[in-house]
Hints:
This protein is of the alpha/beta class and 495 residues long. It has 2 domains: 2-252 and 469-487, 3-Layer(aba) Sandwich (Rossmann fold), CATH 3.40.50.2000; 276-464, Rossmann fold (3-Layer(aba) Sandwich). The protein has helices spanning 18-32, 90-93, 110-128, 144-150, 190-193, 204-211, 220-225, 236-241, 276-288, 312-316, 323-329, 342-354, 366-375, 391-397, 408-413, 434-450, 452-464, 469-487; strands at 2-6, 36-42, 53-54, 59-63, 66-76, 83-88, 134-138, 162-167, 175-177, 197-198, 201-203, 214-217, 246-248, 299-303, 333-337, 358-361, 378-381, 401-405, 427-429. Strands 1, 2, 3, 4, 5, 6, 7, 8, 12 and 13 form a 10-stranded mixed β-sheet that branches. The longest helix is centred in the first third of the chain and has 19 residues, at 110-128. The chain starts with a strand and ends in an 8-residue tail after the last helix.
Amino acid sequence: MKILMISSEVYPFAKAGGLGDMVAALSAELDRQGHEVRIVLPRYYSVDPGRLRRMEQPLGVPMGLEEEWCGVATSKLPGTEIPVYFLEHQALYGRDGIYGTRTEPEFSDNLRRFTLLSRGALQLVKMLRWTPDVVHAHDWPAALAPVYLNTLERDGVFADTGSVLTIHNLAHQGIFPKEDIEHTLIGWEQFHGAGFEYHDQLNVLKAGLRNADVLTTVSPTYAEEIQTPEHGHQLDGLLRHRSADLVGVLNGMDYALWDPRADANLPARFSADDLGGKTVCKQALQNVMGLEVDPEIPLDGMVSRLVEQKGFGELCGPTHGSLYNICSELDLQVVILGTGEKWCEEELGRLAGRLPNLAVDLEFNEPLAHLIMAGSDFLLVPSAFEPCGLTQMYAMRYGTLPIVRQTGGLADTVANYDEPTGEGTGFSFDLLTPSAIYNTVGWALWTWHNRPEHIASMQQRAMAERFSWEDSAARYIEVYEGAVARRSGTTPRTW
């Protein structure tokens, strides 16, 4: 099949979260399976133009009442021959940040920026005379692409092109003043007809969900959760209406990049057959983070965005968080790596100054992330919701047992410890409360001290788990075929 990926992030060119990893890994696996993939994303300021080849012909993109002109640069997805096309527009993309900055979390012109991405991607493939069988759009920044395919591009070269929209995080929907619909080239007559209307505002993701041939999420459990009022972010009704078209496909992970047997970021390598190197990594992590170097102290790591979604309100909220009690009452060490909301960074810094067994690094540090996965005994992921999650997969690969809330992809990937039998690959809890986090961390520590044989068997079981992109890509091909069939008016399939 010929597949066009449209995304605001693609690793290693631009990444703010797991979206960039997923698009790159899925594209690479589809390519290995013999499919023709092309990717379009903006050229942000952070992408070095010196490493790109610039196309001579500029690209004209209709944008509301005017036409925007942008340059196009090309590269290859590393390790593949997949073409990656970058839309260049200095006024819209020539700035720090993908969606915003710390001082401006959401750029005020994001609708124009990502309208250019969706509309520009379709204009680009027209210019290239390459018509995809399916357009795969990712999250709200690309959600206008299915809308265009179902309205302005209903006939012509895209008449037989199916569309797939993947929801990576339903909490981010692209909501703007309704007057901004003029930027999209969609007429006012489509404000209701195409599904943009949302409490007298413009909702880009809602329109995409209404118009895409098939919808996917990044885990089966998340696909079920978002159809409920608790997790549906006020779109649960629409998602229930489209439940027959909604498929949960669990993300895979990159086993070449995350491999304790060959990880160049580690001071010592190890495997399930020989865990000696893991002890060396733990001692190195303790030393790097300024903690007491002692392999007998359980070490709990976190690698996360420091935001409410990840459970940090319950973990370190100034009046009710459980982290202070965890560190002051339990015999363990805690290491946290990440960046995020200012209040959270400040509170973690304050706690680290008071607690000698808590170490915090408030930056993005890829080598340190690998060392935390390898050197920790447990990985804490207390998310309020988690569409898929990758850190728990990485942790298991490195023999580090996840402590997770049972939601979304966390529920799909981590088997809860069964105390009588020793079965499981981690520890989980249901309700997100400070006491639930505290008690589950305590349960993991009790098991560490009193059931070491269970910890050892769980490590072996966790390291043997496989979350293969090969399987996920094969499932996506089924999704693509379903989208093309739907576009042609074939009887809808049952997923």
